């Protein structure tokens, strides 16, 4: 395709797209009403098919639960936001286009409150703080999806506070559990901001001391030294809480996910 080309796909009404059957139809529903549902995404599961993860994704499990092929044609469950494959926690899904559009409007208007939990390397000297650093694509990395703090980047703001401390328990530097509340929704915002704070997320293959670990992990070639450095098989970031307004009732809803293991 040439840059700027327009692609139109027409699907006849009598020929619905077939759904890929997930390995399991199980999905942990945290909240549901007529307009939307919130589910608990496990770690190491992609939210939708892409790249090398084309089957058994979270949205395929949701389609299977809602019997995708029997839904009305305009009633297609859609993700209202995304989490990285390694991140766990609350995912919000609109059941039909009107609800999805309203929830997306709430995200864009910053009316949705978000709180993540992260285990980080080292222990902050203070109990709380705000990271106000603009973000954009990294110009110093060969990994295209990596983000970085850039003077000319997009505004990004994250509040954080210490929930628990484990001083000097790992390699002499300790670990801490932080609650992070992003006020903007930049790619990898919390992970980049915590790295800039000097406390990268434990298990993060991209934001830490050695970004080459990310490529070795993608190629299935992690060394024993890499695994010891990472400490965990995935980065320790969890979407703990979402607060939003139900499109069906107009009521404010709080959904929480227990910290994943």
SSE arrangement:
Blueprint (H helix, E strand, L loop, with lengths): L27 E5 L3 E6 L16 H8 L12 E2 L8 E7 L2 H12 L4 E9 L6 E5 L2 E3 L9 E3 L7 E10 L8 E8 L6 H9 L14 H7 L5 H7 L6 E9 L6 E5 L5
Parallel strand pairs: 4-11
Antiparallel strand pairs: 1-2, 2-4, 3-4, 5-10, 5-11, 6-9, 7-8, 9-10, 11-12
The percentage helix is: 10-25%
Provide the low-confidence segments as ranges. none
Strand/helix succession? EEHEEHEEEEEEHHHEE
Head-to-tail CA distance between termini? 44 Å
- Global mean pLDDT: 91
Largest beta-sheet characterization: 10 strands, mixed
Task: Provide a count of the helices.
Answer: 5
Q: In terms of structural class, how would the helical and strand content be classed?
A: alpha+beta
- The number of E-state strands comes to 12
Shape: globular
| C-alpha Rg (nearest Å) | 20 Å
> Which strand-content bin applies to the residues?
25-35%
Verbal overview:
This protein starts with about 25 loop residues before the first strand and ends in a 5-residue tail after the last strand. The mean pLDDT is about 90. It has about 260 residues and is an alpha+beta fold. The protein has helices at about 60-65, 95-110, 190-195, 210-220, 225-230, and strands at about 30, 35-40, 80, 90-95, 115-120, 130, 135, 145-150, 155-165, 175-180, 235-245, 250-255. The strands form two sheets. Strands 1, 2, 3, 4, 5, 6, 9, 10, 11 and 12 form a ten-stranded mixed β-sheet that branches. The chain has a two-stranded antiparallel ribbon with strand order 7-8. It is globular, with a radius of gyration of 20 Å. Strand 1 (about 30) and strand 2 (about 35-40) form a beta hairpin. The longest helix is centred in the middle third of the chain and has 12 residues, at about 95-110.
């Amino acid at each position: 395709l040439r840059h700027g080309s327009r692609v139109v796909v027409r699907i006849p009404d009598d020929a619905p797209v077939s759904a890929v059957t997930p390995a399991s139809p199980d999905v942990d529903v945290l909240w549901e009403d007529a307009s939307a549902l919130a589910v608990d995404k496990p770690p190491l599961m992609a939210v939708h098919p892409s790249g090398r993860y084309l089957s058994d994704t979270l949205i395929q499990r949701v389609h299977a639960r809602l019997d995708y092929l029997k839904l009305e044609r305009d009633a297609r469950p859609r993700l209202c936001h995304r989490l990285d494959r390694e991140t766990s926690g609350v995912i919000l899904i609109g059941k039909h286009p009107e609800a999805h559009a309203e929830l997306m409007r709430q995200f864009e208007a910053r009316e949705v409150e978000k709180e993540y939990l992260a285990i980080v390397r080292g222990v902050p000297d203070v109990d709380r703080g705000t990271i106000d650093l603009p973000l954009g694509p990294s110009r110093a990395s060969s990994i295209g999806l990596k983000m970085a703090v850039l003077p000319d980047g997009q505004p990004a703001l994250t509040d954080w506070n210490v929930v628990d401390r484990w001083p000097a328990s790992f390699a002499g530097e300790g670990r801490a559990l932080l609650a992070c509340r992003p006020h903007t929704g930049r790619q990898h915002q919390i992970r980049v901001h915590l790295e800039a704070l000097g406390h990268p997320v434990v298990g993060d293959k991209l934001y830490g001391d050695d970004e080459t670990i990310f490529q070795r992990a993608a190629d299935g070639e992690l060394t024993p030294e890499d695994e010891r450095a990472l400490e965990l098989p995935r980065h320790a970031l969890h979407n703990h809480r979402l607060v939003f307004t139900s499109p069906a009732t107009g009521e404010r809803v709080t959904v929480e996910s227990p910290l994943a293991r």
